[in-house]
Amino acid sequence: MKIKSIKTVGFRKFEKEFKSPFFDVTEITGGNTKGKTNILYAIVWVFLGTNLTGDNRVWLGNNNSDDCYVELKFTDNFGINHTLVRYKNKYDNIKNFIMLDDKKIDEKDLTNFYSDKNLFLSILNANYFISKSPADKKKMLDKYLPEIDVKSVYSKLDENDKK
């Protein structure tokens, strides 16, 4: 998947419209509290409807806004361009929707793009993986990395890392 652009309105720090294109290499820089992490939050929220820890009960809208909107333009792994929109109203769940390419969809329809919520969150937020119990970490590693020979990886470590 390749993200092309993002647009938010009323999302976290961005009360007004925020939009940014993405390129083959996009560098996001800025001082503390300028909104860098909000971009990552927006990507996670538009796909999963959660924050970076996987919690979907948290209001991610701006404190001064009743509406929260994120639009993500991306190209999938087959080279097809898509526009994904998630909208949430702070007080009226009936108004909430998810749209993919101008068609209303359900949350489950998005799994075609990320396949596994835990893996998606772990890739975008290393702290998500780190916060898991040792048993959950092992389960994820066994699921996603079954073909990696641990001995060959271990042999490539320097002596300090082996310790």
SSE layout and pairing:
Blueprint: E1 2-9, E2 18-21, H1 36-48, E3 67-75, E4 81-89, E5 97-100, E6 103-104, H2 111-114, H3 117-124, H4 126-130, H5 134-144, H6 150-155, H7 159-162
Antiparallel strand pairs: 1-2, 1-3, 3-4, 4-5, 5-6
Quick summary:
With 163 residues, the chain is α+β, with helices and mostly antiparallel strands.
What would your notes on this structure say?
With about 160 residues, this protein is of the alpha+beta class. Helix content is about 30%, strand content about 20%. The protein contains seven helices and six strands. The chain has a six-stranded antiparallel β-sheet, with helices on one face. Strand 3 and strand 4 form a beta hairpin. The longest helix has 13 residues. The radius of gyration is 18 Å and the shape is globular. The N and C termini lie far apart (about 35 Å). About 15% of the residues are buried. The model has no long low-confidence stretch (mean pLDDT about 90).
- Please compute the radius of gyration using only Cα atoms: 18 Å
How far apart lie the N and C ends? 37 Å
Largest beta sheet, briefly?
A: 6 strands, antiparallel
Structural class by helix and strand composition: alpha+beta
Range of strand content: 15-25%
Instruction: Please report the total strand number as a whole number.
Output: 6
Percent of residues in helices comes to 25-40%
Spatial shape: globular
**Mean of residue pLDDT?**
91
Order of helices and strands: EEHEEEEHHHHHH
Order of strands, widest sheet: 2-1-3-4-5-6
* Total helical segments: 7
Runs in which pLDDT lies below 50 for 5 or more consecutive residues are none
